[in-house]
């Protein structure tokens, strides 16, 4: 059996290091509860440009009823893609009144651009199908407290 080269081993170790950094980064974001209809969810909050750019990249899974909330400084047509994101996701685009204005399904590891139909202030990413399986639809309000 042929032994792997030192260069290959270094490459594998580097990849493992990068993945552990992504996992550690994601765990350092603040977590808060959100409420939609009668459902409580826990989300990590991405509010800086760096946090928003990284999002859920490098993750291999999300826990049940957990996701990521993106908070923007200004209302705009903020777009999303799935570069380096391995989990299939659903995204809810949310306006300044905290109302869901669009829900899109996003395929992992793609560069497809997902753009809201109107300016948004927030976006909520959950595991693919989460919104439909919980009866959450366009027009529902996302609350930051009960």
Descriptive account of the structure:
The chain has one domain: Sandwich (Jelly Rolls), CATH 2.60.120. It is 22% helix and 33% strand. The radius of gyration is 17 Å and the shape is globular. The longest helix has 22 residues. The chain is of the alpha+beta class and 146 residues long. The protein has three helices and seven strands, in the order αββαββββαβ. Strand 4 and strand 5 form a beta hairpin.
Structural topology:
Elements: H1 6-27, E1 31-36, E2 39-46, H2 49-54, E3 66-76, E4 89-94, E5 100-106, E6 120-127, H3 130-133, E7 142-143
Parallel strand pairs: 2-3
Antiparallel strand pairs: 1-2, 1-7, 3-6, 4-5, 4-6
Rounded to an integer in angstroms, the radius of gyration calculated over CA atoms is 17 Å
Number of helices: 3
Low-confidence region ranges: 13-26
Order of helices and strands: HEEHEEEEHE
Largest sheet: 7 strands, mixed
Total beta strands: 7
CATH class: Mainly Beta
Please provide a brief summary of the model.
This protein has 146 residues and is of the alpha+beta class.
Main features:
Jelly Rolls; globular; 22% helix; alpha+beta; single chain; 146 residues
């Amino acid at each position: 059996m042929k032994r792997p080269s030192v260069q290959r081993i270094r490459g594998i170790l580097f990849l493992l290091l990068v993945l552990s950094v992504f996992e550690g980064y994601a765990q350092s974001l603040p977590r808060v509860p959100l409420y939609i209809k009668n459902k409580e969810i826990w989300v990590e909050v991405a509010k800086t440009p760096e946090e928003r750019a990284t999002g859920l990249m490098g993750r291999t899974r999300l826990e049940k009823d957990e996701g990521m909330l993106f908070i923007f400084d200004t209302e705009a047509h903020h777009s999303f893609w799935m570069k380096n994101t391995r989990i299939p996701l659903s995204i809810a685009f949310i306006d300044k009144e905290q109302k869901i204005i669009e829900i899109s399904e996003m395929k992992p590891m793609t560069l497809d651009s997902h753009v809201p139909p109107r300016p948004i202030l927030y976006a909520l990413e959950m595991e693919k199908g989460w919104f439909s399986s919980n009866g959450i639809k366009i027009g529902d309000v996302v609350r930051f407290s009960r």
